[in-house]
Amino acid sequence: MELSLDGAPVGRVDLDLTAEYDLHGVVAVVESGALTALRFGECDVTVTFSVRPVGTVLQRRRTFSVGALAPMRETVPLIGSARTRPA
Predict the structure, then answer these.
(1) Within 13 Å of residue 16, how many CA atoms lie on the same side as its CB?
(2) Residue 21's CB: how many other CB atoms inside 10 A?
């Protein structure tokens, strides 16, 4: 980020923003020997804001209940004779 004072450049600050996601309680949904969906429980999100060369100036972590079901675009056979369901 360029810094200016009354329109004249006075310096530069390099900023970094990172986000990390950790999913917990992921459950595989299996039907007729094939993976058909994933069900998610909770997600930990960690956001870190850093200024170079100082380092980390702010870090926050929160846990969210996801409770979502993500169907597979195509089923994934888990055994040789698994049938794929129609789209």
Answers:
(1) 12
(2) 9
Residues 33 and 78: beta-carbon distance below 8 Å: yes
- Alpha helices by DSSP H, listed for the chain, are none
Average pLDDT over residues 15-22: 95
**CB contact at 8 A, 37 and 49:** no
Q: Is the pLDDT of residue 23 over 60?
A: yes
> Exposure of 75 by Cβ count < 10 A (0-12 exposed, 13-18 middle, 19+ buried)?
buried
Q: What is the pTM of this model?
A: 0.58
Token pair for 59: 């870090």
Separation CA 58–CA 34 (nearest Å): 44
The span from the CA of 35 to the CA of 69, in Å, is 13
